[in-house]
């Protein structure tokens, strides 16, 4: 049984690394060795389309919760 758990963990780790490796995120970041300052930019275009969806879902959930609580108080 313990072997199956570790096999499952290894498989999930492999899937996670494959998903990260197959993404097309772009980053051009360099470190200045003398000062240790980071410089460069990170392309966040692949994540920017999901942010409004998440914010909208949270707002919708909070709105529905507020309406349900108002209806319970109205009884």
Explain this structure to me?
The chain is α+β, with helices and mostly antiparallel strands and 75 residues long. It has one domain (2-74). Helix content is 67%, strand content 16%. The protein has helices at residues 2-22, 45-48, 50-74; strands at 26-31, 38-43. A hairpin with a 6-residue loop joins strand 1 (26-31) and strand 2. The protein is flat and about 70 Å long. It starts with a helix and ends with a helix.
Average pLDDT taken over every residue: 76
N-to-C CA distance: 53 Å
Shape: flat
Helix content: 55-70%
Main sheet strand line-up:
1-2
Please report the number of helical segments.
3
Return the string of H and E elements: HEEHH
**Which regions contain 5 or more consecutive residues with pLDDT less than 50?**
none
C-alpha Rg (nearest Å): 22 Å
Beta content comes to: 15-25%
Q: Briefly note the structural class of the backbone.
A: alpha+beta
Question: Largest sheet at a glance?
Answer: 2 strands, antiparallel
Task: Give the beta-strand count.
Answer: 2
What is the domain total for the residues?
1
In brief, what are we looking at here?
This protein is an alpha+beta fold and 75 residues long. It has three helices and two strands; from the N terminus they run αββαα.
Keywords for this structure?
75 residues, alpha+beta, 67% helix
